[in-house]
Amino acid sequence: MTKTARGARVLITGAAAGMGRMYAERAVAEGAASVTLWDRDRDALDATVRDLEAAAARIAGQTRITSDVVDVAEMGSIAKHAHRVRNKVGAPDILINNAGIVRGNRYFWDTDNGDDTRQTMRVNALAPMYLAHEFLPDMIGAPYRAKRIVNIASAAGTLGNPRMAVYAASKAAVIGWSDSVRIELEQAGHTNVKVTTVTPSYISTGMFAGATGPLLAPVLEPGYVVDRVWRAMLDGKPLLELPRSVRLSRFLRAALPTRVFDVVVGDGFGVYKSMQDFTGRQK
After folding, report:
1. Which residues pair with 12 in a beta bridge?
2. Which residues have C-beta within 8 Å of that of residue 73, sequence separation ≥ 6?
3. Residue segments in the chain with a per-residue pLDDT below the cut of 50
4. 27, 70, 187, 249: which sits with the fewest CB atoms below 10 Å from its CB?
5. Separation of alpha carbons 29 and 40, rounded Å
6. Where along the chain do its domains lie?
7. How far is CA 118 from CA 26, 174, 228, in A?
8. Separation CA 174–CA 80 (nearest Å)
9. Is residue 167 flagged as an active site residue?
């Protein structure tokens, strides 16, 4: 799996639209054996499946497209549909934990613990853990076949940012968990399974509509991100930071006293003001 996803079984969450759909299109174009789409939106899923099947037919591909309406916020739903995936197409060779939500432009004390905090943590932090826990035994049990797990975190998980405290917390959890699992797999000798953690800044998918890209971290184009993530996944790269300034901000966060960092990066680079005009994707 060092060059393409040809012959691989792929599962993508949040796959009915946006970048999830783009990952699916990439898998079909490369001749994946199967592409399984999970999302909550049945209508969007059905439309995406039709388009992917048409794309596969145009290239005379043999990719099998399947989909399920899954609420990844519910552990029971994940377990139920993971069983369905095994029965229909087999456990995935590539798992892309792409689903995510953001509730922003409010201070933490103004958020709703039930709707905002609990749901954000379930979708962004717990769902990738539940999914990986479901399929890792299958991946480990096939030691002679390359396996990949991609966990889409965020640059927000690497430093604090006003008006998105719970989102930042959820992505920080993903980063710590994802890299820990990577190290565990390496220590245990399961070198066929590679974990890639992705920490992008804002992406122009509509999810962060209204947010402003800080200095040195412009809002990213989805196609560029998908291409970089895909290549990093195939290469088994442990960490992908987009843009490179994300790494710089981590370095400055460790090197500078907190109050100096607040002034130089938080205020000077505009990080702490980036969510002031956030509106998010409109329903």
Report:
1. 37, 96
2. 119, 122, 123, 126, 127
3. none
4. 187
5. 24
6. 9-273
7. 32, 15, 31
8. 23
9. yes
Please name the fold of domain 9-273. Answer: Rossmann fold (3.40.50)
C-alpha separations of 190 from 97, 147, 230 in Å = 20, 10, 21
Determine how many CB atoms are found less than 10 A away from the CB of residue 65. 23
Q: 71: which 2 tokens? A: 């609420």
The tokens 């889409």 sit on which residue? 152
pLDDT of residue 37: 98
List pLDDT tens digits, range 12-23. 999 999 999 999
Residue type, 200: P
Token pair of 46 as six digits = 């059905």
Is residue 63 within 8 A of residue 93, CB to CB? The reply is no
Pairing of strands 94-97, 147-152: parallel
Residue 84 pLDDT = 97
Nearest partner of 130 among 168, 103, 99, 90, judged by Cα: 99
Pick the catalytic residue: 107, 130, 144, 167? 167
